[in-house]
Amino acid sequence: INPQDFRSQPLPGLQDFGTAKLQGGDMKDNLTGAQAAQLVSFHILVPTYVPNGVSGKLQYSVMTGAEVMFTFSSSMTRAYLDKSGYKNIAIPANLAGATFTINVAAGVEMQYSNANALPFFIIEVPAPIIRATGGASLNELRDFLLSLPNIPQSLATQLKSIDLNSGTIPIPLPPQVTAQHVTIHGAPGLLLADNTPIGGGVLWQTHDMIYAVGGAVGNATQLMETANSLR
């Protein structure tokens, strides 16, 4: 995704099309591994290998479970479209008042405590559950939003090709980021690394869990070895 595509006409936000309500999502910091384990529903994996320059004890934080509910508003959407010069765009009737919820169970973030070492983190969180609870499906909401004129055609084409029922997570990346598909613990993942001090990371999903490791480390080999060492 090229950020320059949005400089002249930024993407609208969901707040232009309805209201969102968040419940939960609090952070509990400075936990021990035992304390963190009591607050999540999964076995926390820790690495047996870390990249060069990473050191210190693991510090644990837990984000409690959260629910986000989005309610589509035809009146807010009409006002946004009229203001943006799109008075001719019709809003599907079944979107009026449709609700969509995202539920995320408690997850854990781990960081190494040595302040003089390279920042490095590990995130483990259950895959979110997204539901359409009103008169419109997720695909219908997605298709309407992507039909708006200010959405770059290349972005719309990519997102429309994703099956929302498959569990696929779209990850927008600018063209200067080096990304490649990899396999971690037998599962498909994405490696972001360019061997520079900017840093990098690895992201993958398996057994209804999402994992990410990364930080100020750009060495692809060391990032992959860390990811595959989680036990």
Strand order of the largest sheet: 2-3-6-7-12-11-10-9
Query: Helicity level, as a percent range?
Result: 10-25%
Tell me how many strands there are: 12
**What is the overall number of helices?**
5
Strand content: 25-35%
- Average pLDDT: 91
Topology, element by element:
Elements: E1 18-24, E2 27-31, H1 33-39, E3 58-63, E4 66-72, H2 74-83, E5 99-104, E6 107-112, E7 120-126, E8 129-132, H3 138-146, H4 153-160, E9 179-184, E10 187-192, E11 200-206, E12 209-215, H5 220-228
Antiparallel strand pairs: 1-4, 2-3, 3-6, 4-5, 5-8, 6-7, 7-12, 9-10, 10-11, 11-12
Brief write-up:
The protein has 231 residues and is an alpha+beta fold.
Q: Notable features of this structure?
A:
12 strands, 32% strand, four-stranded antiparallel β-sheet, 231 residues, alpha+beta, eight-stranded antiparallel β-sheet
Q: Can you tell me about this structure?
A:
The relative contact order is 0.17. The radius of gyration is 20 Å and the shape is globular. It starts with 17 loop residues before the first strand and ends with a helix. It is an alpha+beta fold. The model has no long low-confidence stretch (mean pLDDT 91). The strands form two sheets. An eight-stranded antiparallel β-sheet has the order 2-3-6-7-12-11-10-9, covered by helices on one side. Strands 1-4-5-8 form a four-stranded antiparallel β-sheet. It is built from five helices and twelve strands.
